[in-house]
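Thread: Modeling a multi-component assembly for a lab meeting

Hi all, long-time lurker, first post. My supervisor asked me to bring a structural picture of a complex we are working on to next week's group meeting, and I have zero experience with this. I have the sequence lines for every component (221 residues in total). Could someone generate the structure of the whole assembly? Inputs are pasted exactly as I received them:
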Amino acid sequence: MADDGIVPRAVVIEVLRRNGAEVLEQPDKADMFLVVKGRAFEVIAIPEECGRKLLHYLSRKFTTPIHHFYNPLMAPPLPGEPIQ
Amino acid sequence: MAKTKKKKASNPDTVALHGHSSDGSFHVVGIGNLRVVIVPDGKFWFAQGLEIDYAVQGSSEQDAKRKFEYGLEATVEAHLMVHGTIEGLLRVAPPEVWKEFLGDPSGKKRLYSQLTSHVLQSKLPFDGIHYLVAEVS
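Re: Modeling a multi-component assembly
Sure thing. I ran the full set together rather than chain by chain. Output:
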């Protein structure tokens, strides 16, 4: 993570998935993803670099602790993933 | 000299409408006067809807607007395909978000409206399912 609070897309998607969200890339539009978790269900832009406000929004909407984005090792494992 | 009070311009009501054909394959969705606040976020721009809790990040103010429009329309279509309604989308942003964005002096307040039509595939994209029963030899 850089000092400016920007987190790369790959980390954001990984953390959302580890917190139980389904993230599916939209084939017809760059940067757009369908994100589903519980009742939250939306098509949203997840750009290559995600800023603070977007991370707070994703954290709130998809009930993902904000600190997981900045420290992905704290995110829970994926189902079936061995814990080391 | 008599002072005249300036009448405050009231915010127009936000409206959402949804109509569909009898077989459910054709839908029209209108969203009117949705308040969207666009604020800078470092080198990015962030657009947050208030009456509908939906937001996007863009590389410029224009990019944020474009992504907001596309994303909201795509979200409407996804809700129609899965639930058949847009009720799940009609969630107001929480009070702390209103406070944060309306209180931001750098925020640009905009009213957003859209009318979209959606043709949903009501039939399977193939003729049907042929079940094959394996015979025990």
